[in-house]
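User: Second chain of the day. Same drill as before.
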Amino acid sequence: MSAPMVEADADVVVVGMGCAGAAAALEAARAGARVVALDRAAPGGSSAVSGGELYLGGGTALQQACGVDDDPDLMYAYLHEALGPHPDEDKLRLYCDGSVEHFEWFRGLGITFNPSLYDGVSWLPPTADGLMWLGENAWPFTGLARPVPRGHRPATDGFGGWLLMDRLTTAVREAGVDVHPDTRVTGLVQDDSGRVVGVRARRFGEDVTYRAHRGVVIATGGFADNAEMVADHAPVLIGHSVVSDGLDDGSGIRLGVAAGGTLRRMASTQVALSVVPALAVRGMLVDGLGQRFVNEDVYPGRFSQAAVRHRPGPWFTLVDERGWEDVPERERWGVQPAVVAETLAEVETELGLPPGSLEDTVARYNRDAAAGEDSLFHKDPRWLRPLEAPYAIVDATRGFDPEGTGSRGGTGVSGFTLGGLRTSVDGEVLDASGVPVPGLYAAGRATSGIHGEGYVSGTSLGDGTFFGRRAGRAAAGC
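Assistant: Same format as last time:
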């Protein structure tokens, strides 16, 4: 059998062209390296279908334009708790200290941000405001650090991941990176000393080899689309829908392990419950026993984690007529009540909840609301008021569509993975002794980044690009 043909000879080979891979390729090229970037499909990956939020702060120009005063220490204090327990403190400190510069890097790509604040609660604001809250103004974080909004949104309506990747991909090509789509990497090439010196791949039906004189960067995404790996490492996601482009199969993680790398935080995940935050905050979230379990004004991912990981389902949003009408129809995400009733006893019967459970929960909530203080979960008084009949119940298992036939697969839950290859702050893939595997780097969701067990929107795109840049520079020898 003949040896695979050599497709390209480069200084740095980047595997995966989502946000992390594109950032790595761009910075390596800007550092003077000859770069080839490979992707099994087309550039963009899961990053291109994301909401596009970037979690940035520390005093960015956008924050200043919105009259917001921030600094890296405040940002670190919030993220340390919101991404915890046990975030990667070294990476997180670098990320917070470098956030202002990273924001300017995005602006240098031609990405703009409208200088206005969305002052509500939402997975994705229905406006083009450039700045949004991501749970910083909710308990318990209000007692840890002065609340500061840090969700930075590109100037486009709705999902903005496509815009980020469009600008990034354009910059990559303009920097002279040779981009090869439809190229699936099947293995890493190591020399006799164990140094990674290239990759093996399938391109247009042929086996090819790409040489890398300085380093290979893995940026292939997480493993939420790999049922076997999910069952082994992140079973909380079993049976639920996946937030991805369909190609987060863990292949890059396995490549890194085969070359001597190790893993970190493989059980860490983000889960999202199909709840409209604007409705929940005006009412309450209850579990399958009719009990409230969280302050509904937190970042939606946080109440989703609290529900899916710790409370019996199904999960419901209870809201009264005033709360329902306060939310414009276009901001209800297409949901419709599963039950509308004049009494809570009727709701309990319709949902099969224990008799009296919801009545007790609402009675306690209304007493607190009348007193102006949520004694159980400390919801901000801005959202606190007694609930009155008639009541509406939205069933999260129906998903974000009126008939419950949407992409959430009947559970109302979707998610993705946060764990992956263990890396240094410069993207070096580390072996079991904490020693870098020579010539091998990684970034993005193929790695364990700044996260512990928590998540905040914008930290995947932010973490991936920030440490992708560092990995690209390190691979280039800078």
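The CA atoms of residues 236 and 309 lie 7 Å apart.

User: Great, on to the next one.
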